[in-house]
Amino acid sequence: MTPDLKILVWSVVLTFVQVIVAVLAAQGQVGLGVLAGNRDGLVTLTGFAGRAQRAHHNMLESLPLFIALVLVAHIANHTSVLGEQLFFWARLVYAIVYIIGIPWVRTLLWGISVVGLILIFAQLV
């Protein structure tokens, strides 16, 4: 498997780990019964659980862009391992920092992940 596809797979693994953390944190806050139900009127998660949920949702917003760029770059044989690594490592640390609750560092890391996306895109134009 090529390095770009490996980073893509690890980004999916990161997203999966984030959903597990978010679900476990939500379960701790509202209980399994509430989560297993229809979730009508589900309370807004707060603290650790809320941050884990928001970090996961943010990754879900970024992941399709990353997947599309990596696959197009791979097919076109114009991969940017630097951009892919920037995205992955920034998103990994972003998730940790977001869940811990460090706002400005979180924003900086999000920006670094966007730079990674831009570097991948730049290889395609």
Question: What does the model show?
Answer:
With 125 residues, this protein is mainly alpha-helical. The chain has one domain: Membrane associated eicosanoid/glutathione metabolism-like domain (Four Helix Bundle (Hemerythrin (Met), subunit A), Up-down Bundle). It has 5 helices and no strands. Helix 3 (47-75) runs antiparallel to helix 4 and helix 4 (81-100) packs antiparallel against helix 5 (103-122). The chain starts with a helix and ends with a helix.
CATH-defined topology: Four Helix Bundle (Hemerythrin (Met), subunit A)
| Beta-strand content estimate | under 5%
Which structural class should the secondary elements be placed in? mainly alpha
Count of DSSP E strands? Answer: 0
In CATH's first tier, which class applies? Mainly Alpha
Largest sheet: number of strands, sense, barrel closure = none
Q: What is the alpha-carbon Rg in Å?
A: 16 Å
In total, the number of domains comes to: 1
- Helicity range of the residues? over 70%
Q: How many helical stretches?
A: 5
Tag the structure with descriptive keywords:
single chain; 125 residues; mainly alpha; Four Helix Bundle (Hemerythrin (Met), subunit A); 5 helices
Task: Provide a brief overview of the structure.
With 125 residues, this protein is mostly helical. It has a single domain (3-122), classed as Up-down Bundle (Four Helix Bundle (Hemerythrin (Met), subunit A)), CATH 1.20.120. 82% of the residues lie in helices and 0% in strands.
